[in-house]
């Protein structure tokens, strides 16, 4: 089942230095005008899938969240409090219902006037468009990434303006998503909000390149797939490699997996094992 798009989100505020967590009414303001999230996009976030009343792949998200905070020189997040807020928000949102939902952690530099970080958790319905793309796949264009990303440890920051602008451009051209490529080599990097995974027989491949944000869903998939006998590896990928693969997937936390049905002007046929790959990814998130 799915939750109604009109279902009210549940918000919990997290005290950034390990104090209490408290529920916040979604009809009341939360962010001040001088918060760094608003003025500079200065902060980090994680999006998690809620499935079966729990946050999927929780520990990988928590590790990346802490890595991002360290990279951005934010105070270390008290993960016991973040996880407590997440459990409470999921319980309040889901109640006795079962279905997929979206959980977002947001952690900002905070107000200029206080210097105190802002932190909150939201659980809300997944957009119908996202569920449709999960079920039916996406048409994707490739485009060079024209901005620099720190290579040492990319952080999942709130500053997505350039990526979202390119995604809007792709949609204006009739595509539903975007794969970014290295402007110097033309090699595959990552999706706008996802990790690229190519399947060839029993081989799963993802891109290895400069400044690629480590994907939590891809990591879970590779760990589970290896146990099932698949050969998994990160390696340099090209557009031509994707065109010749049995199937290409954009994997991410909430959409989970969307098969690429068209890459630029080339239609990619569905292989016989589409359901097998979908089940593999779903099982990885439940492992």
Description of the molecule:
Helices cover 30% and strands 29% of the residues. The chain has 287 residues and is an alpha+beta fold. The chain folds into 2 domains: 10-125, D-amino Acid Aminotransferase, Chain A, domain 1 (2-Layer Sandwich); 131-286, D-amino Acid Aminotransferase, Chain A, domain 2 (Alpha-Beta Barrel). The strands form 2 sheets. Strands 7, 8, 9, 10, 11, 12, 13, 14 and 15 form a 9-stranded mixed β-sheet that branches. A 6-stranded antiparallel β-sheet has the order 2-1-6-5-3-4. A hairpin with a 3-residue loop joins strand 13 (247-252) and strand 14. The radius of gyration is 19 Å and the shape is globular. It starts with 9 loop residues before the first strand and ends with a helix. The model has no long low-confidence stretch (mean pLDDT 94).
The low-confidence parts are: none
- Write down the Rg: 19 Å
Structural class: alpha+beta
Name the CATH superfamily classification of the largest domain. Answer: D-amino Acid Aminotransferase, subunit A, domain 2
Number of strands: 15
Distance between the termini: 21 Å
Task: Name the helix and strand elements from N-terminus to C-terminus, one letter apiece.
Answer: EEHEEHHEEHEHEEEEHEHEEEH
- The overall average pLDDT, rounded, is 94
Query: How much strand content do the residues show?
Result: 25-35%
Number of helices: 8
CATH topology tier name of the largest domain? D-amino Acid Aminotransferase, Chain A, domain 2
CATH class wording of the largest domain: Alpha Beta
Summarize the biggest pleated sheet: 9 strands, mixed
- What is the CATH architecture annotation of the largest domain? Alpha-Beta Barrel
The number of domains is 2
Q: What sort of overall outline do the alpha carbons produce when their principal axes are compared? A: globular
Query: Which percent bin holds the helix content?
Result: 25-40%
């Amino acid at each position: 089942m799915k939750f109604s798009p009109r279902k009210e989100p549940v918000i919990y505020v997290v005290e950034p230095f390990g104090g209490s967590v408290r529920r916040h009414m979604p009809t009341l303001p939360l962010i001040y005008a001088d918060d760094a999230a608003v003025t500079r996009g200065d902060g980090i976030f994680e999006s998690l899938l809620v499935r079966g009343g729990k946050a999927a792949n929780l520990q990988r998200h928590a590790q990346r969240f802490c890595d991002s905070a360290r990279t951005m020189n934010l105070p270390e997040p008290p993960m016991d409090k973040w996880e407590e807020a997440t459990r409470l928000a999921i319980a309040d949102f889901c109640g006795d219902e079962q279905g997929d939902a979206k959980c977002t952690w947001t952690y900002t530099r905070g107000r200029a006037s206080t210097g105190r970080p802002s932190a909150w958790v939201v659980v809300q319905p997944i957009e119908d468009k996202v569920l449709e793309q999960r079920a039916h796949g996406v048409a994707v264009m490739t485009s060079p990434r024209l901005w620099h990303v720190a290579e040492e440890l990319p952080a999942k920051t709130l500053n997505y303006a350039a990526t979202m602008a390119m995604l809007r451009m792709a949609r204006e051209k009739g595509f539903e998503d975007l794969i970014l490529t290295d402007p110097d080599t033309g090699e595959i990097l990552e999706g706008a909000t996802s990790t690229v995974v190519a399947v060839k027989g029993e081989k799963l491949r993802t891109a290895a390149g400069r400044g690629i944000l480590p994907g939590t869903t891809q990591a879970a998939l590779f760990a589970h797939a290896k146990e099932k006998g698949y050969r998994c590896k990160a390696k340099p990928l090209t557009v031509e490699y994707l065109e010749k693969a049995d199937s290409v997937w954009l994997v991410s936390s909430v959409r989970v997996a969307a098969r690429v049905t068209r890459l630029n002007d080339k239609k990619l046929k569905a292989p016989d094992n589409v359901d097998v790959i979908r089940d593999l990814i779903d099982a990885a998130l439940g492992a």
